[in-house]
Design a protein that fits this description.
Blueprint: E1 3-7, E2 14-20, H1 30-41, H2 49-52, E3 57-61, E4 63-64, E5 67-68, E6 73-78, H3 82-85, H4 102-108, H5 115-121, H6 126-141, E7 146-154, E8 157-158, H7 182-197, E9 204-211, H8 227-236, E10 241-246, H9 257-260, E11 265-267, E12 271-273, E13 282-283, E14 286-287, E15 292-298, E16 308-311, E17 318-321, H10 331-354, H11 359-377
Antiparallel strand pairs: 1-2, 2-6, 3-6, 4-5, 7-8, 7-9, 9-15, 10-15, 11-12, 13-14, 16-17
The protein binds ligand EPS.
Ligand EPS is lined by residues 10, 47, 49, 53, 122-124, 127, 239, 303, 325, 327.
C-alpha cells in the first residue's frame, strides 16, 4: 500500500512529506520534482507570496544514488517567507474570513487565535502534494502512464469542450493561465485583471488527463476500492475544490443512455476498443483502458480586497474583512496540483495491482498481466 502524510504551516519553517510503500530501485529525479514545483508556482493571477517563495525539494531519506531503497521517502520544501516572519511580533487573528476554515476550525479546535487554523488550512500545503505527485508520476512513467492538465475556464470565460484533443494539452504550459487556446487565454487574463481592479477573486475549472492507463486498476467489488471514488476524494481534498466530474460528468445526466455509453468494438490487432470516451476511462470503479479524464471546479479565492462581512470571535463585534495580500486567481496552479492528485491515486492503484518490493518485480508483474490479456483477447 502506498501512503503519504504532509506536515507544515504556511509561514512555518518548511513543508515536509513522507511517502511510504514505494518499490525499491525506482529512479528519483530531483530536478523533475523541482520542475513540477516551479510549474505550480506559475500562473497569471498569483499574489505577492509567489515572488518570495522559490520552491525546491530536499530529499531527506529513502533515496541512495538516485534510487529508492524501499524505506520511507522524506521530502522537505523550505518556506522562504519564514525568515520574514520569525522575528516579527505576530498578533492573534480573531477576525474569521468568510470562505476559509477560520471560524469552523477555531470552533472545532477550541482556538482563540485563528492563525493556528489558517496556517495549516492554507493552500501552501499543495506544494508538498505536488512534490509527492511528482514522485508518483516518476513511478507511473515506468509503465508509460502520462498525466497532463489544462485550464478550461476562469470566471465566466471558457474553452468550448469540442475545441481540443488530448495531444493539444502538451501546449498548456505555454499559456500564463494554462489554457491551450490563445484567444481564450487572453480573455481569461483580462477577466483576472478586472477582478483584481475590483478587489475581487475568480475561480474556474481545470481538467486532468491520464493516458496509457492499463485496463483493470481499481475494482468494482467494494466501495473503497473503486478508482473513480478514490480520484474524486483526492481532487475534493485539494484546497478550494468544490466539484469533481469524470468523463461527461454532470452532462451525462442531461443525455439519453444511448448518447452516453461508449460502444464496444473488437479487432484482432487492437483487441477491444471504444470510439468514444464519455466514461472518462472509468466504468464501475475500474479503469477501462481509455484515457482517464477528470475535471474539477475551484471556487474563487476567499481572501478578498473587497471587504466581506464577518464577526470577531472574541468581541462578537461585526466587521468587514480586509486583507494585506492575496492571489486573485489560482486555477492554473490548482491544475498542477490536480496532476499530482491523479498521479498519486494511479500510482497507488498500480502498486496495489502489480505489487512488488522492487520496481523490477512490479515491472515483471505488469508485463505478465499484459501478456495474459493479449493472449486472451486474440483467442
Ligand atoms: C494562501 C494565501 C497566500 C497564498 C498561499 C495560499 O499566502 P500568504 O497568506 O502568505 O499571502 O500565496 O499560497 C502559497 C503560499 C502557495 O505556495 O501556493 C491561502 O490562504 O490559502
Amino acid at each position: 500500500m502506498l501512503r503519504f502524510l504532509t506536515a507544515g504551516e504556511s509561514h512555518g519553517k518548511a513543508l515536509v512529506a513522507i511517502i511510504e510503500g514505494l518499490p525499491a530501485n525506482l529512479e528519483i529525479n530531483e530536478e523533475d520534482i523541482n520542475r513540477q514545483l516551479f510549474r505550480r508556482q506559475q500562473g497569471y493571477g498569483r499574489g505577492g507570496r509567489m515572488k518570495i517563495e522559490k520552491d525546491e525539494v530536499e530529499i531527506l531519506s529513502g533515496v541512495r544514488k538516485g534510487k529508492t531503497i524501499g524505506s520511507p521517502l522524506a521530502l522537505m520544501i523550505k518556506n522562504l517567507d519564514y525568515d520574514n516572519w520569525k522575528d516579527r511580533e505576530v498578533l492573534p487573528v480573531t477576525k474569521p474570513r468568510p470562505g476559509h476554515g477560520d471560524l469552523t476550525g477555531a470552533i472545532k479546535y477550541n482556538q482563540k487565535d485563528i492563525r493556528n487554523v489558517l496556517e495549516r488550512a492554507s493552500a501552501r500545503e499543495t506544494a508538498a502534494r505536488v512534490a509527492v505527485g511528482a514522485v508518483a508520476a516518476q513511478l507511473l512513467a515506468n509503465f508509460g502512464i502520462k498525466i497532463m492538465s489544462h485550464v478550461i475556464s476562469i470566471g465566466d470565460v471558457s474553452l468550448k469542450s469540442c475545441d481540443y484533443s488530448i495531444e493539444d494539452l502538451t501546449d498548456a504550459d505555454k499559456s500564463p493561465v494554462r489554457c491551450i487556446d490563445e484567444a481564450v487565454s487572453t480573455r481569461m487574463m483580462k477577466a483576472i485583471d478586472e477582478a483584481r481592479a475590483q478587489g475581487d477573486s475568480l475561480g474556474g475549472v481545470f481538467e486532468v488527463v491520464a493516458t496509457n492507463v492499463p485496463v483493470g486498476l481499481g475494482s468494482h467489488v467494494h466501495w473503497d476500492r473503486k478508482l473513480d471514488g478514490l480520484i474524486a476524494w483526492a481532487f475534493m481534498s485539494i484546497q478550494a475544490i468544490k466539484g469533481v466530474e469524470i468523463g461527461l460528468g454532470f452532462e451525462a445526466a442531461r443525455k439519453k443512455g444511448s448518447e452516453v455509453h461508449d460502444e464496444i468494438f473488437y479487432e484482432k490487432t487492437l483487441g477491444f476498443y471504444r470510439k468514444t470516451n464519455n466514461a472518462g476511462g472509468l466504468e464501475a470503479g475500474l479503469s477501462n483502458g481509455c484515457p482517464i479524464v477528470v475535471r474539477a471546479a475551484m471556487k474563487p479565492i476567499p481572501t478578498l480586497y473587497k471587504p466581506l462581512r464577518s464577526v470577531d470571535i472574541i468581541t462578537k463585534e461585526p466587521f468587514a474583512a480586509s486583507i494585506e495580500r492575496s492571489d486573485v486567481c489560482a486555477v492554473p496552479a490548482a491544475s498542477i496540483v490536480g496532476e499530482a492528485a491523479l498521479a498519486w491515486v494511479l500510482a497507488g492503484a498500480m502498486v496495489e495491482k502489480f505489487g512488488g518490493d522492487s520496481i523490477e518485480e512490479m515491472r515483471k508483474n505488469f508485463h505478465e498481466y499484459n501478456a495474459t490479456i493479449n493472449q486472451e483477447r486474440k483467442r
